[in-house]
Amino acid sequence: MKNLNFEQTKIKDGFWGFYSDLDRNAIVKNVYDRFKETGRFDALRCGWREGMPNKPHHFWDSDVAKWIEGAAYLIEAAPAPDLEALIDEMVEDIAENQRTDGYFNSYFQTIEPSKIFTDRRMHELYCAGHMIEAAIAYHRATGKDKLLNCMLKNVDMIYRIFVEEQSAAFVTPGHPEIELALLKLYEYTGDKKHLELARFFIDQRGSNEREEKNPCNQSDIPLREVSDAVGHAVRACYLYTAMAMLAKIDGDDKLKKACDRLFHDIVNSKMSITGGIGADHSEEKFSYQYDLPNSDTYNETCAAISLSMFAGAMQEMEVNSRYGDVIERVYYNGFLSGVSLDGERFFYTNPLEIDRKKYARSTYQPICERVKVFNCSCCPPNVVRMLASISRYMYTIDGDTVYCNQFGESETKLQIGGKTAVLTQTTDYPYSGKITFHYSGEPMTLYVRIPDWCVEYRGDTENGFVRFALSDGDSVTVDLPMEIHFIEANPYAQDNSGRYALQRGPIVYCMEEIDNGENLRDITLLENSEAKVVRENGIPAPVIYLGAERRPAADHLYRLKNSQRISFTARLIPYFAFANREATDMLVWTMVR
Q1: How many CB atoms lie within 10 A of CB 463?
Q2: How far is CA 275 from each of CA 207, 301, 331, 337, rounded to the nearest angstrom?
Q3: By three-state DSSP, how is residue 469 classified?
Q4: What are the residue boundaries of the structural domains of the chain, listed by start?
Q5: Coil, strand, or helix at residue 455?
Q6: Which of 113, 207, 380, 546 has the fewest other C-beta atoms within 10 Å?
Q7: Which CATH class is domain 397-479?
Q8: In sequence order, what DSSP letters do the residues of 493-554 get, joined into one string?
Q9: pTM of the entire predicted model
Q10: What is the pLDDT of residues 470-481, one digit of tens each?
Q11: What's the pLDDT tens digit per position in 267-292?
Q12: What is the rounded radius of gyration, in angstroms, for the C-alpha atoms of the chain?
């Protein structure tokens, strides 16, 4: 069973059409402009000297690589000569400055050449991993092999240093990423050296005597023994993704069971309702079970993306709708909140509550408005590449059996019975839950995921999927009731005790002060009031209006409990759309009566 390559699916109109167009027409160019201004692309020339502006940083190559990868995906979907020319210029700089032994890292070659492979914390292998992914993407999109050849030389050098000579000062990457990149490279080239190197990094982590025992970097115990998701959330899920990929390739049951335990731990005790992970802002890491704060949670945009990648790797090993459920939760909530509706500004962290007065006296002060660029700008180019390949987890295929995991207006080309087949989705999801599939091709079996939020669905399911047998010319429709649900958290999630989140379909909603007035935490939503689900310009998903009440203002600090309430209509917007007008308080978890 394998995820269908995203390039086989053409996103058309609707929700994901909006974001695909935004990525191509705004986001990719805006990120390029900011990276150009800050010197990230110029750093590839390895010509920076003291006294010059924009001193290179040790993770800049990864920012550039993710941008190249995302731009390559856009080129593959439709010709973009302007993007191709920009990438070609960068590739020339990389090729010209790559060392004869294959090493390339613009920071170390320019700033600290004497410290190459001496400090596990300095992201060398992380940057190399993203460059590998960029090289694969650009070769697949254009057929141009210069960047791919550069990275193949780089991988040969890394193999020699880490496996053959073991001459580096550390054993495995401080920031995982190269592991999954090497497995992608193995799948692309068939070279078993790439598989062997990925396996080495996974097998040695936590089990080599030279390995630093550090739970923040997921290197405290051997990976086949892990049960709890710990440490830096992005690093963790990049690593867990690679573990799942390797478990599938090798048929490694112990590694698969470790992935099962980790996935269960994350989604059942360490994931926000938006799909955000990494609640502890002190080190961008997982906190203890059920510690899911709202106003000071971290929930890095990259962390949400990494969780979807982990779930995507898991759904290649097991037919279970829970993986698609998690991907959907991330996609429509904790990932999209990382980019503004105009594609110009980004969030690094994604809180579930904004209280500006509280922030003013706190040592931790999340930004309340998205910005164009960060000093650590890993998230913006990650948004570029994820939106450019948003259908990457839409379908999995196993022979003549196809599993539909995600929904969107689209057309997909398949190989069924050795012939090309076409499967089309027609839907205005997530406005409604009606999805019609039109099929042309040899007979096949289609399984369609029934989301976990759709408790009203009454059809028979297998592992969370409904089954259809399709022949040439057939059309079938799945109609998912889109009811408004109030969601409560586990009682151990103390921050949300007595409060509820409103969800309709895959979308989690929030209230903003700009619409609902001050003191959002004093608002009570009226569950049985008439709700209005409205299409509004500027937001590609419904806005909800619902009856609500709040207490009247008082002259005294304390007073006897009373039943006086002021009634009004609350406006709730999709969580991903918050902070798109001005800095304002925001709330996801609210009181309900």
Answers
A1: 12
A2: 31, 10, 8, 11
A3: strand
A4: 22-209, 397-479, 484-592
A5: coil
A6: 113
A7: mainly beta
A8: -GGGTT-BEEEETTEEEEEEHHHH-S-GGG-EE-TTSPPEEE--TT-SS-EEEEEEEEPPP-
A9: 0.97
A10: 999 999 999 999
A11: 999 999 999 999 999 889 999 999 99
A12: 24
